[in-house]
Amino acid sequence: MTYSTYGAAAAVVLVATVGTVSAIEQSNWQTVNATVSYIDRNCKIIQTAYDENWKAKSSRSFTDACNSVDEWEKVRAKRTKIVDGNAVVHLDFMLPDTGLPGTAELKYTGRDDAFYQMKAGDEVQLRVRKDDPTKVKKA
């Protein structure tokens, strides 16, 4: 056999192995519906003032829990200001196999649309590991 034949055989074995491992890994996760119980959002809203030539002349920032910033609802709806922040979303769900309740946390930044749109009571899909329900990821 030539080296190219050995290489082709090795490539086939590698692809088959990766595909098998990926299929096994996917079978260890299950999709569940989760409900957002509450969200801890912290924001840094940066407001910039411009002169008549559209050059930035000053800026000020508000740093606090997003809901305590007076303009949060306007910023959330229109996104007219620069927002940097993070959110920890607390979720409640039921495990389909056992029927036991579970909790989880997902983290978002100001760059994620969910940071602005998600609110308590929303339902989201979540991937939960079958052998360890404390391990979750976004669906």
Question: What is this entry, summarized?
Answer:
The chain is an alpha+beta fold and 139 residues long. The chain contains three helices and six strands, in the order H-E-E-H-E-E-H-E-E. It has one domain (30-138).
Along the chain, the helix and strand elements come as HEEHEEHEE
End-to-end distance: 46 Å
Shape: flat
Number of helices: 3
Instruction: Please tell me how large the radius of gyration is.
Output: 23 Å
**Could you tell me the mean pLDDT?**
78
Strand content: over 45%
Major sheet size, sense and barrel closure? 6 strands, antiparallel
Contiguous low-pLDDT stretches (5 residues minimum) are 16-25
DSSP summary, beta strand count = 6
Percentage of residues assigned to helices: 25-40%
Assembly status = single chain
SS-derived structural category: alpha+beta
Total number of distinct structural domains:
1
